[in-house]
Amino acid sequence: MFRKLTVLLVLVLLLSLVCGVSCVVADNDAVPNAYRRIEMDKSKIIIDDGDTVQYEGITIRILGLDAPEIKHPQHGIPEDQPFGRAATELARAYIDNAKTVEYIPAAKDKYGRTLAHVLIDGVPLAVLLVRQGLAYETVSDYGDNGFPGYAKEILEAEKAAPVKFFINPSDFRKMMKEKYK
What we know:
Layout: H1 2-19, H2 21-24, E1 38-40, E2 45-49, E3 52-55, E4 58-62, E5 65-66, H3 84-97, E6 101-108, E7 114-120, E8 123-124, H4 125-131, E9 136-137, H5 139-142, H6 148-160, H7 169-179
Parallel strand pairs: 4-7
Antiparallel strand pairs: 1-6, 2-3, 3-4, 5-9, 6-7, 7-8
């Protein structure tokens, strides 16, 4: 009996060493949402603005960036922020020209939106927009949200980005609130 248990234990250990985590977590449902890439059909993606998209009834707030605002009277933004339309159009161009678009959900925010990284051919959209100077990085304020590798890429993109010619969108939102209260 002892010999059978020892052999079984050795086999389990060998199997786990050879296969690694993928053998233990073979079922996609067992993988937490924060680590699951979900492929998106580009034709079903609606660009709300540079940092928010709609997909199959889900509002996705893209992690790692804050893009300049576009007019959303229902959200207290009665006018476009400078470069808001440019950021929105660049996000649309990246998505339209991508071979693959995926998202990795992390959590929900206080507004019920899904916080997620959106990947354009494997590259976070946040990296692409921040690198072009059309968004501020938010990793410094909100942390890595469980994605330290993406956070590092976003921070590096910020260092390489050109000077921004618009105020931080969070300041713009506060300004709109004051101006139109």
